[in-house]
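Re: your question about G protein-coupled receptor

S., sorry for the slow reply, the queue was backed up all week. Below is exactly what I fed in.
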Amino acid sequence: YQIMLFLALADMGALVTTGTAFGYVAFNGMHFCSNVLLIGINGSGFWYTSTCACALLVINRICELTERGIWFQGWRSSLCMLLIVVYSFTNGLFSRPVLANSVHETIALDPFIPGHLPEEYPNMGNLVHNSCVAVIIPSLYLVLMIIVRKNSHQFKDSTAAQALQAK
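Result:
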């Protein structure tokens, strides 16, 4: 349940920063120069934390179903979560922030500043992370689905499953 609590906290942080705070920014027509701190908080690392925690939870479930659950017992799951937090804050602090403005929503790759080209402002960390999320998480869920499907025949023959079906 550690990983699920961690994921819930990351999701709540992401909802506050990328949901509520972004709505406030968009409603008031703010941009980076009008409120640097609030725009910086909007581009914080909660998205990275949330998506990495989703992947970690799926990996945990895969390990449990393949009888490798010991990989996440004790300090190992805490270490994985700590690595996710370090990755998220490092990516959030040392890469260009995902800016927001009221016209173009989020600006991950182009600042839309007159006289500047999109090539001057790529947020490659965000681009690579989102590309990995789009490939890795569905792949992990596909593996989980295959494992569940493969192991489901065990439940058809068990007496416990037959007792549940009888009820």
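Residues 18 and 109 are 17 Å apart (CA to CA). The mean pLDDT is 79.

Happy to talk it through on Thursday.
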